[in-house]
């Protein structure tokens, strides 16, 4: 019987079989190389985005005050950007789900470039408000980059499964899948944060010269144009393939509500954790001056130290931490507990070295929390078609926490204690977040 089977397979048949396997492997290899190139382009775009924005952001408040408006007006104008981001994030993400990541990203970056360019020739309050409104509505580069990476991770999982099936058919042995498990987000956070570290330094040096603000605004607008060109050249063909039926397409308008409903518990945890950290950072300068007598100069150095800790934490996340934690929920719980311990130390210590140690833990662990929260949300995604909506809503929750932090901090200082009110609220938020995490149902 074996001889009969072997006789039925000619040499030509074997050549066809192995030729098909080879072609399949070459296709997977080509797709992987393309995915790798796109990933690096996304990293570069994210770096340039934060590098450019952080060059200008620290200079804006003084520019607004120089226009002749008071402090209250300056505060109102400063909140326009965050307010617009709060509502535009989910909408832009949803558009990218339906009309293509590359197309939406290209248009949004071009409009953001226009918004920054308007700041260069004029210091009119009206022009500044228009500029911040445009940027607030359309500057969602980081959000769309995350959606790109989520799509690429999904594609790599599919290619890994295909490679596994091919090898299993040849060797009759099952190999373990090599899914990315969100592995691109760690390097993404590291590289983009580096842009935020170096941008203010370079922007500050340029602004010291005559007409420095105008030069910085022009450079920022030009860098956004470069990003738009990169998207047009390398990412414009990246489009989510729609597999929705007519019935599903007809109900797509309710996708944003579906995203919020299905992930409300995780978004609540994100809001509480973000608010707890933002409340501390809102009064950071005032706190170290009043409690430890730290000068503005050394407070600035400490701020740079915290930024570098975030970079180091993201690097460790991408190289080691994600290999230890296979469940985002476990990483989120442990990171939130670590944040709670560090916030408690910040609130109650009277020793400056211990305060710095707690700040070190806080800023080192913060990327772990953000990454785990993002992976939890993506794990619940019913389809890659929702990645844009998810990342947009994720961005809006962060903007909401940022907007609320100043108000919550002020109320806490008035009602609880001028010195420790913010810290008490921060610890309470973390405690609620831990309780919510313990009650979460495991992701299917």
Automatic annotation (TrEMBL):
Compartments, record wording: Membrane
GO terms for cellular component: membrane
Residue intervals passing through the bilayer: 41-60, 72-92, 104-130, 185-203, 215-236, 266-286, 298-317, 329-348, 354-372
Organism name: Ramazzottius varieornatus (Water bear)
Positions of the UniProt region annotated as Disordered: 159-185
Membrane topology of the entry: Multi-pass membrane protein
Signal peptide per UniProt: none
SUPFAM superfamilies documented for this protein: MFS general substrate transporter (SSF103473)
Highest taxon in the source lineage: Eukaryota
Molecular functions (GO terms): transmembrane transporter activity
One Pfam family per UniProt: MFS_1
Keyword Lipid metabolism: no
Protein name: Major facilitator superfamily (MFS) profile domain-containing protein
Keywords per UniProt: Membrane, Transmembrane, Transmembrane helix, Transport
